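Need tokens for this chain, all 266 residues.
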Amino acid sequence: MSTTDSRPLLHVVAGIILNGQGEYLLSSRPAGKPYAGYWEFAGGKVEAGESETAALQREFEEELGIRIHAAVPWLCRVHSYEHARVRLRFYRVAADQWSGGIQAREGQTWSWQKAGDFTVSPMLPANGPLLKALSVPTELALSADGVLCGKNGMGAYRVVPYASALPQEANILLPVGALQTSGRPPQAESVWVEVADANEYRAAAAHPAADVLLWRVADGSDAQAVLEALDEGCPVPLAVAAPAETAAAFRSAWLAAGAQAVVIGG
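Here are the structure tokens for all 266 residues:
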């Protein structure tokens, strides 16, 4: 994203559609559109007076002939293209939240792809970073030694604190202060950044080396701040770690607002 781009923002929504095998739907941009032939998560412009969900439903019906019954907000990114500056709001749509047979109504090509094993290219530039984000598990557990453990479509997934990480560890967790001071650990394939309040969240979300955020919630005030951040839209996946009582009270709201995962414990 260009920090000097002063063009008005074009509000766009895109849907990340899953099937029963955990694969994601990608489609190519048809001839006549900018970036024709590039692959993307389908979607389109939000019209005046239209909600994001209504725009998502309309675009998928028009482009691919499928009906969106429900969707969960996920990431929000701003990207500058040659033809426009866009604010992209991505929604996740589970296999039971859509119906219909896929039809290439605009002459495009479509394909089901696995997270971490995408076989189509080239990808639309604003969609590229999502490929890594899609490999982040939606269920995580915290071990006694502070390691986050989960699974994705490729198998086991571990996030290890930087202080105890071995050279072969792919996913590294470090405090936002350490990221600002020392930068991205050279061996890390994915950098998880832990934050404890809204100020740290904003700093980490704006850092180009942050791939995933882990917000450690201490109380109800922090819990509400997480909801506000999710409502604004986070550019990278946001997981939340909280004591059991707080997690029980806010888990459903966090997930409905777009949290990647909720972890019990601090």
